[in-house]
Design a protein that fits this description.
Length: about 375
């Protein structure tokens, strides 16, 4: 009987504890709900962002329209630095606002970094163009990164990075009189930058290349000695990174030359443009590396002999796929030979193609060797 009474007492105590625990848990849940309201979902956030963006762009367009209708509407005085509105869908602006954006882009291409981040007034802008543009058209400097073979592997543009990590447009590029000494130094205009001349260094993808001391280029000083800041053994930056032209980096040079000097070398100079820090850019092809550029500054145009030569089995598959119908049996056999045969694995296919190439090379050598004696006989007969 005593055991039965004790069991009932224990069950009552457990029930009471569970009730108290549930009550406390409910109070905590209520407190958390009051203190931390429900967060909006991603869909609601997106709708809010779109609504704010639309209202911002609408207000900006109306303000630009009022500026365009005013006295100084066509000028640059109405431009102010603004935060960019982030929108997740296509937004349209009025024609007046679009014209204002185009005018600002033109201003930025002409002025570059010369305004120090503060927009010129219309009077200052006109005075700047009157003073600088004739000088810029007359004394433009062409900057390139040249290989020992004379090919411009890289044509420097406004956004090209220097060894000092600043861009080409942040260096001195306009001269009233071109300096007579060579090479021409283009010092960096950024405050407290020790760079005294623009020096191009290629990138390995998106990463800076390494020096022979195993440290990156940006770990070296930007002064003329370019000593390593991470070690004491490196006397200066010296990289063995191989360019696309096949030559290492240390054999290339950053060349700054005038229009006359470039024409004397047979390099393209393009058209005279009023934009700042154009460097060596003369067209869209200037954005391509030298070994892929088919003009006189790059690898050059292929010869007529190369363009007119027949497509053989050793050529690129793209050329073989787009060649015209072959009238010779040899062309047909080459096409059939380049195809993989049924039940032929990879190793057997590549081995067969390798043996065919060896036979072709031997046949070409025999043909060349047979042609030499005939030429000698013709010379003897003429004598």
């Amino acid at each position: 009987m005593f055991l039965t009474f004790s069991r009932k007492n224990m069950s009552q105590k457990l029930s009471l504890l569970l009730i108290i625990f549930g009550f406390i848990w409910g109070l905590l849940l209520l407190h958390y709900t009051v203190q931390h309201p429900r967060r909006p979902s991603s869909v609601e956030l997106r709708e809010q962002i779109l609504d704010l963006s639309k209202r911002y762009v609408k207000a900006l367009a109306e303000e630009n329209k009022s500026l365009m209708d005013g006295e100084n509407g066509a000028s640059l005085a109405g431009y102010e630095s603004r935060d960019t509105a982030v929108a997740m869908e296509r937004l349209s602006i009025s024609p007046g606002a679009a014209a204002a954006v185009d005018e600002y882009l033109e201003y930025r291409r002409v002025v570059g970094e010369d305004d120090g981040g503060i927009l010129f007034t219309p009077e200052e802008y006109e005075e700047y163009k009157t003073k600088v543009l004739p000088m810029r058209l007359r004394n433009r400097l062409y900057v390139s990164w040249r290989s020992p073979t004379g090919m411009d592997c890289k044509l420097v543009g406004p956004e090209t990075l220097c060894f000092c990590t600043h861009r080409y447009k942040q260096h001195k590029t306009d001269f009233e009189v071109i300096p007579p000494e060579r090479p021409i130094s283009l010092p960096c205009k950024v405050s407290q930058c020790p760079c005294s001349a623009f020096y191009y260094v290629p990138l390995n993808g998106t990463q800076p290349i390494r020096c022979r001391c195993k440290h990156f280029a940006d770990q070296h000083s930007a002064d003329p000695e370019r000593a390593c800041r991470a070690c004491t053994k490196c006397p200066g930056f010296h990289s063995y990174f191989t360019c696309g032209c096949g030559h290492p980096t240390y054999t290339h040079e950053t060349i700054v030359e005038t229009k006359e000097e470039r024409l004397a070398l047979g390099k393209p100079v393009g058209q005279d443009v009023p934009y700042a820090a154009m460097g060596g850019l003369t067209g869209f092809s200037s954005l391509v590396e030298g070994y892929m550029r088919l003009d006189d500054s790059g690898i050059g145009a292929p010869s007529l002999e190369a363009l007119g030569s027949p497509v053989i089995a050793m050529d690129h598959p793209f050329l073989r796929a787009h060649q015209g119908p072959s009238s010779s049996l040899q062309g047909t056999s080459n096409q059939d030979s380049s195809l993989r045969r049924p039940d032929e694995d990879d190793m057997a296919y590549f081995e067969r193609r390798y043996q065919e190439r060896l036979k072709m090379e031997k046949a070409a050598k025999k043909k060349t060797a047979g042609a030499l004696p005939s030429k000698m006989k013709q010379k003897d007969e003429k004598k």
